[in-house]
Design a protein that fits this description.
The chain is mainly α. It has 1 helix and no strands. The radius of gyration is 52 Å and the shape is rod-shaped.
């Protein structure tokens, strides 16, 4: 092999290598352009979505604060209802057991007053005769 054949092989190898590098760089450029377009599209679509998400988050936070306040009020209301229920239960117990006893005692007292009145009435009638 002569010197010219070696140079010719080297030139062909160099041209093939340059062609491959150029093709690779063109492919990288296309890929980078697609990535750039994708980033621009994603940013365009993501910005309103993030704004909507932020607005929804604020609305949810406001609702949670409102619900916490309502729960505190409801807790006080439920506590008052519980106390009223306890009072009604006490009154019911009193009326069930205490009323009979007091009615019996009242009837006995009433009967005593009636008997006492009748006794004085008779004694008055007897003295009047």
């Amino acid at each position: 092999m002569s010197y010219i054949s070696l140079v010719l092989i080297a030139v062909i190898a160099f041209v093939v290598l340059v062609g491959y590098v150029v093709w690779t760089m063109v492919q990288m450029r296309r890929t980078l352009q697609r990535i750039d377009e994708m980033i621009v599209n994603t940013e365009r679509e993501l910005t309103p979505l993030l704004a909507n998400l932020r607005e929804s988050s604020e609305h949810i936070r406001s609702s949670v604060v409102h619900m916490e306040k309502g729960a505190i009020r409801a807790g006080g209301l439920l506590e008052a209802i519980g106390e009223a229920g306890d009072a009604l239960h006490s009154i019911n117990d009193f009326l069930r057991s205490g009323t009979r006893q007091y009615l019996n005692q009242g009837m006995v007292l009433w009967s005593g007053f009636q008997a006492f009145r009748n006794y004085f009435k008779r004694s008055h009638e007897l003295k009047g005769e």
